[in-house]
Batch of 2 targets.
Target 1
Amino acid sequence: MEKKQFQAESKRLLEMMISSIYSQKEIFLRELISNASDAIDKIYYKALTDPKLVFNKEDYYIKVIADKENRTLTIRDTGIGMTEDELENNLGTIAKSGSLAFKKEHKSQDGHELIGQFGVGFYSAFMVADKVTVISRALGSDHAFKWESTGTDGYTITPCEKTEVGTDIILKIKENTEEENYDAFLETYRLQEIIKKYSDFIRYPIKMDVTVKKLKEGSENELVDVQEEQTINSMVPIWRKNKNELTPKDYEQFYKEKHYGFDKPIKYVHLNVEGTVTYQAILFIPETIPFNYYTKEYEKGLELYSNGVLIMNKCADLLPDHFSFVKGMVDSDSLSLNISREMLQHDRQLKLIAKNIARKIKSQLQSMLKDEREKYEQFYKSFGRQLKYGVYSDFGANKETLQDLLLFYSSKEKKLVTLDEYVSRMPEDQKYIYYATGESIERIEKLPQTEIVADKGYEILYFTDDIDEFAIKMMMSYKDKPFKNVSSGDLGIEAEEQETDQEKQENQELFDYMKNQLSGKVTNVKASKRLKNHPVCLSSEGEITIEMEKILNAQPNNPNVKANKVLEINIHHEVFQTLKHAFEKDKDKLNLYTNLLYNQALLIEGLPIEDPVQFTNDICKIMV
Ligand SMILES: Nc1ncnc2c1ncn2[C@@H]1O[C@H](COP(=O)(O)OP(=O)(O)OP(=O)(O)O)[C@@H](O)[C@H]1O
């Protein structure tokens, strides 16, 4: 028997293949099943042009047979088989794909797209097998041949017997090593699991003999083990089915089966897109937040299939970060895969699909917001924060896309409103979109700074999420209306001028004195234009607001950011007269009052008092 040699380059390629192309050993089964499916598809193609050939789908199948005793795993198909020459050419030459050549000869037909294209998948068998035997009989031939190889040292081809047309790939499974449990590839449950994971939607049945417990004949309760042939794969992917035939229950079932989440999806969309890119997709918006969603451990991505075969579990490139909560899958025949079928090269098609999908998700959310407000608010409670991160990140690149999906609590409506709803209600003289920040709605309701804006009849948006103000700073304005923090310097509201020049002069001296007293703590002390009933509040000058100071300083790397704080005094409050009096008569008292007011303003803002003991002592001083 003549032993033929792999060419030198092929030898190296095979070694590389076996050790490094595929990151997981289990995919050998995906590759061999895909080849088997291609082989059956080839008969289907031939039958299209050969009137003597009838393609009866029921006659074709793939069978996976595990033999623990002999440590063999056989992948049998009833496909087109290989002649002696084909065995030599297709399996003797690495990176030669008979399937690719076949594809070039036959035009693609209604979804029967061949999977193979690189001519390497077969060799992945050597990742788990010491020896691979291929017994094949080609369609239209009376002869069968056996190809055999133990890997890099070459292969033999000899005639043999085989009654049916088709191919048996017999793997002699390796012995266990410390790192790898090869026995698992002979276990029925493990093989079923791998088939389900990667090859569930191969369109021909993948059969296995499975041991099941059945009642012994003639007995009423005695169970015996019986071998039963079962079809493991579901064959028709739900996404290839007609939408009209599917019910919401079917989609929910699919969501559960695929382990997208433990909850029920709040919304799903089934896409069947044809055009510059062709793909099918089913996308789900979950109802509840995955427990690790707002952590680094959360991995975004959609399952990616090519031709019904799973290529990637979580293809991150298919989802923008701001929609990272979306679950689901995409199947496309028009992707250019790389050789390991695991990662995609920077694929133009993939980019197009991703763009398309992002648009679809947005329109789904928009229609939910418009037509199912309650549902949308439920969604927003879970993932609204992510949308706001989306506005803020990438220097605001996505703000236009996301701004109409945002909701904020409104002081007037006492519920969540969109920016569009806010702006459409603005009175003509209102220049800004006003907002107030705080840790809860209840807390903001009591903020003295909101008084004058609320008094004017203007609506105020309440920002209770730490990201809110950062996101809004990135947007700057909405529909040409700038955002304005009610604590910021100029509120754009004309206050009635009640101080005379002389009063201003006198007050200024008092404020300068107080500013001096609070040196290092505030950058200014001034008469407030926003207070009505409260005596005092803090506001900020410059870009960094007090809320931002709080959030930034709560970060682990504590950047020690300080807002320029301004102590605002309500000159129409009785307390102001007390201050004036103390300024003239008793500077010690004024010092005491200044410290007290400053600390009160800190408390109102939810900021820590620098010296609580001193503060309580000061209060006691005025009590006795
Ligand atoms: N079960 C089979 N029946 C018939 N032909 C087969 C079978 N398995 C492999 N072949 C032939 O061998 C060739 C090489 O197979 P291999 O899996 O290495 O590559 P491929 O399937 O063409 O491409 P890919 O690397 O993308 O899987 C195939 O193109 C096909 O012509």
Target 2
Amino acid sequence: MRMVGLTGGIASGKSTVASMFNHNNIPIVDADVIARVALKKGSAGYKKVVAAFGPDILQHDGHVDRLKLGRIVFSDASKRQLLSRLLAPYISSGIYSEILKLWLKGHKVIVLDIPLLFEAKWDKWTKPIVVVWVDPETQLRRLMKRDNSTEEDAGNRISAQMSLDLKKSRADIVIDNTGSLQDLQERFSDVLSQVKKPLTWTEFWLSRDGSLSALLGVIIGVIAVRKRF
Ligand SMILES: CC(C)(COP(=O)(O)OP(=O)(O)OC[C@H]1O[C@@H](n2cnc3c(N)ncnc32)[C@H](O)[C@@H]1O)[C@@H](O)C(=O)NCCC(=O)NCCS
Ligand SMILES: Nc1ncnc2c1ncn2[C@@H]1O[C@H](COP(=O)(O)OP(=O)(O)OP(=O)(O)O)[C@@H](O)[C@H]1O
């Protein structure tokens, strides 16, 4: 199975690109969605985070106030590291379990949409790595518009992340998303054909069908050897 890594900066357009993959029947493992589940009221992750950050981060109904927690962690690196450390085991196991489900369904290509792909070292497992890049002004403008946030809040979120130029330098494929959605769609068509190239041998043996063929081969081999002796 081929696991494509999809990453970029906040509001650079990862989800927009992910939905293009999805429209082409390539399933997505979305780390932001998994991270939300990990912080759901009553979950083990929720309990650890509330114990560490205190009840002030909760809304009246007991759910985490994401805006409030976001303000705290995106303006303080040590608190951000603490939150990441507390949630990392739950996010990782959520990602593994999604990958396993898709492997069992026999998908040949899947996309891991992980904002912290490099920081959390998921890049070792993904090939190719696609980075959605955008220039800093466009990123700030789109983020403020999407989240209806102030320049200060949006700037804090951007500077809390690894630089987008550094991510770009570590990419196999860069998608420049500074232009229009139509420009993005055109660039995406090239990327799709690269991602859909036939599987390498290693990827084939790591696919469900390849692994089952290998297992069957081993069983037949063992039976044949036993019959001979
Ligand atoms: C702080 C939280 C509650 C803010 O929630 P909010 O709904 O406002 O933002 P959302 O979850 O949609 O994240 C938006 C973007 O912020 C960026 N981001 C999120 N967490 C982090 C982090 N720890 N470090 C750097 N950037 C981050 C990502 O680009 C993400 O796509 C939330 O982001 C969170 O729980 N973060 C910790 C979990 C995590 O590490 N998520 C990243 C998945 S790899
Ligand atoms: N080429 C484009 N032209 C105009 N708007 C765009 C373009 N690409 C994305 N957007 C808009 O920019 C915003 C950010 O895009 P998107 O949500 O896909 O980013 P993201 O990288 O997934 O963000 P996050 O890291 O927060 O999950 C969205 O409102 C989206 O509709």
